[in-house]
Design a protein that fits this description.
The complex is a heterodimer of chains A (338) and B (255).
Chain A (H helix, E strand, L loop, with lengths): L1 H6 L11 H22 L5 H33 L2 H26 L8 H39 L4 H17 L1 H19 L6 E2 H19 L3 E6 L8 E2 L4 H13 L6 E10 L2 E9 L7 H19 L4 E6 L3 E9 L6
Parallel strand pairs in A: 2-4
Antiparallel strand pairs in A: 1-3, 4-5, 5-7, 6-7
Chain B lengths: L7 E6 L3 H14 L5 E7 L2 H10 L4 E5 L7 H8 L7 E6 L3 H9 L4 E3 L4 H9 L9 H7 L6 E6 L2 E6 L3 E7 L2 E6 L3 E4 L3 H7 L4 E5 L2 E4 L3 E6 L9 E5 L5 E4 L6 H4 L4
Parallel strand pairs in B: 1-2, 1-3, 3-4, 4-5
Antiparallel strand pairs in B: 6-7, 8-9, 8-12, 9-10, 11-12, 13-14, 14-15
Classes of the chains: A alpha+beta (338), B alpha/beta (255).
């Protein structure tokens, strides 16, 4: 039963702290303002003037709404969906009333033409915004389920699995203790890979997973693989999509280290600047390496999952220089408590 | 293991030390019921060719994915050795290679290798017929990184990225590096196909390396045709560009 429920769609209010969500709200309301101006103006020439007037009336309420919704975001998300909708509508009407009153007392030549009409405009705009987000979450919910599947697909290459088993086999006779440790790492790694990877996971855990993966690669590649971790400023509690770091590091090893018999350096840098988590990964770049398509697939997959979880607030950038390949991910800093 | 006249001489080529050590362990197990000796190990194809020059072997256990020179390229070169070993490919997982291997019924061992399968492969190794060269070429996922030249009973490997030009002369092709000139027995058309990304045809009988092209000049080539010639960096000799191939000069911003 539980598993069935998991797959059912749960309506929820959007995250009012997400930049992408805010941007969409602003755009929708601006669109309505433009329509209103178009309807009110008597000739084409008057449209712009009318738009300025409408905007002057709408903008303060819009800004205040965004602020209030931002502040109440946590509380709103905890409400059941219907109650949340009612709460948002009430908040909007209240905001409209406050702005209206303030304008009446502050300015003489104010652009407002009656509280009822102002409320009506607010209701229509709020309704449109909520309906839009309702449709959008409907459209994205299969995608979120899909994201889990993608996480599974992004997992470790069979190439790595078989080579690792081979490496462990070779250790059993000569170095049973290391063979044991390697098998334990493999068990941990695959436990995570086979789990439900839909929810965000603490960065700490993702780093630990990646370390286990690298210790297995070290076994195979020996001195050829050199890893540098810079995690002193890492926010361990930051939530990131699962299986983002490990596949990227796997790419780095596969494309940057394995094709050469010289030592290849993979460096991983995790730090926080203001409210953003940065993950920077660098590996040697080999022009003549093959398997480029696989690389692009993994990157596309990760990009998509970042967008599903964080919309416009996360980014993934790759840079190629003469001898280095770099992936730079920026994710908004979120923790469990919020 | 006694060094008997009939011992099967084996070389192992794999870039991963644990993989080599695993094969060694298994060979030790095989040694209980067949006479064999491991005459050497290499961590890539080039090392293997070097090794085989002074330590001939009957069998090469050859990993496919290796840096510098992969197993399939190494198999192509080592055919030129006077007593080339039989090749048994080993691979952990390589979708591309395995499909091609099935297609051509190539013998290979999947890693982790089972003792039984290794034993069987070694037992019938003397009856293995070497793979035709064109099959090996079909198996190769990418162009070779070296060309091999037979010189005084040895194989010299010439890195493809050191070659300035290749010129067809009668039944041979001359390949020219900054340091030397070699003759190889391959067709220029095949070479052109294989190294399309690196070389460009400037004449019916000549391919030049794009990376070494310095400029194009008018006239004064050896034949006195008065057409265009190409100047390669570090090379005195000027090579004529035939009228039919003058379009390639556009690619380099000339004309």
């Amino acid at each position: 039963m539980a598993s069935i429920n998991q797959n059912m769609h749960r309506d929820a209010l959007p995250d009012f702290r997400n930049l992408g969500v805010m941007l969409r709200i602003v755009l929708i309301v601006l669109g309505f303002s433009a329509l209103a101006a178009l309807a009110q103006a008597e000739a084409w020439a008057g449209v712009l003037n009318q738009l300025v007037r409408v905007s002057a009336a709408v903008q303060p309420a819009l800004m205040l709404s965004l602020l209030v919704l931002w502040a109440l975001s946590g509380w709103l998300r905890r409400l059941p969906y219907v109650e949340g909708i009612v709460a948002v509508v009430l908040i909007e009407l209240l905001v409209a009333a406050v702005v209206y009153q303030a304008a009446q007392t502050l300015a003489a030549g104010n652009p407002y033409t009656g509280l009822e009409r102002y409320w009506l405009f607010t209701l229509v705009a709020t309704g449109a915004v909520l309906y839009y987000f309702h449709l959008r979450s409907r459209a994205l919910s299969p995608a979120l389920t899909e994201a889990r599947l993608q996480a599974l697909q992004a997992r470790i290459r069979p190439h790595f699995l078989f080579n690792s088993i081979n490496a462990v086999l070779s250790l059993i006779r000569q170095d049973p203790v290391r063979a044991e440790a390697a098998l334990e790492d493999m068990a941990d790694l695959f436990r995570v890979l086979m789990a439900d990877n839909r929810d965000l996971s603490p960065l700490e855990r993702e780093v630990e997973l990646t370390r286990q993966y690298l210790s297995l690669e070290q076994l195979r590649l020996g001195e050829r693989l050199h890893v540098e971790w810079h995690t002193e400023k890492m926010p361990g509690d930051a939530l990131i999509p699962p299986l983002v770091l490990q596949p990227l590091v796997e790419n780095a090893v596969y494309h940057g280290v394995e094709p050469s018999s010289e030592t290849g350096l993979v460096s991983i840098n995790a730090y926080k600047v203001r409210e953003q988590v940065h993950l920077v990964l660098r590996n040697p770049y080999r022009k003549q390496g093959n398997h480029h398509s696989g690389n692009k697939m993994a990157l596309g997959n990760i990009r998509e999952r970042l967008a599903l979880h964080f919309d416009a607030e996360a980014s993934l950038r790759t840079t190629v220089t003469d001898d280095a390949y770099q992936v730079h991910i920026v994710i908004p800093y979120r923790t469990q408590e919020r | 293991m006694s060094r008997s006249a009939h011992a099967l001489r084996i070389v192992i080529a794999d870039d991963e030390a644990p993989a080599r050590s695993r094969i060694r362990d298994l060979l030790e197990d095989c040694a209980a019921s067949m006479t064999l000796e491991v005459v050497g190990e290499a961590s890539n194809g080039r090392e293997l060719i070097d090794l085989l020059q002074h330590a001939p072997a009957d069998v090469a256990l050859l990993d496919i994915r290796m840096p510098e020179m992969d197993g399939i390229e190494a198999a192509q070169h080592l055919r030129k050795l006077p007593d080339a070993p039989a090749v048994i490919f080993t691979t952990a997982y390589d979708n591309y290679a395995l499909k091609a291997f099935e297609l051509h019924a190539v013998d290979y061992l999947v890693k982790p290798i089972r003792l039984r399968r290794l034993y069987d492969a070694l037992a019938r190794v003397r009856s293995i017929t070497p793979l035709p060269l064109d099959v090996l070429r079909d198996l190769a996922p990418e162009p070779r990184k070296h060309l091999s030249v037979q010189e005084r009973g040895r194989i010299a490997l010439v890195p493809v990225d050191r070659i300035l030009f290749m010129r067809a002369e009668l039944k041979y092709v001359t390949i020219r590096t900054l340091e030397a000139e070699h003759l190889i027995e391959e067709s220029l058309t095949r070479l052109e196909q294989e190294f399309r990304d690196r070389f460009v045809r400037i004449h019916r009988s000549c391919l030049v390396a794009r990376d070494y092209i310095d400029r194009f000049e008018r006239g004064a080539d050896d034949t006195g045709e008065g057409g265009w010639v190409v100047v390669l960096r570090g090379l005195e000799e000027r090579l004529p560009v035939s009228r039919r191939q003058q379009h390639v000069m556009k690619e380099f911003g000339r004309l």
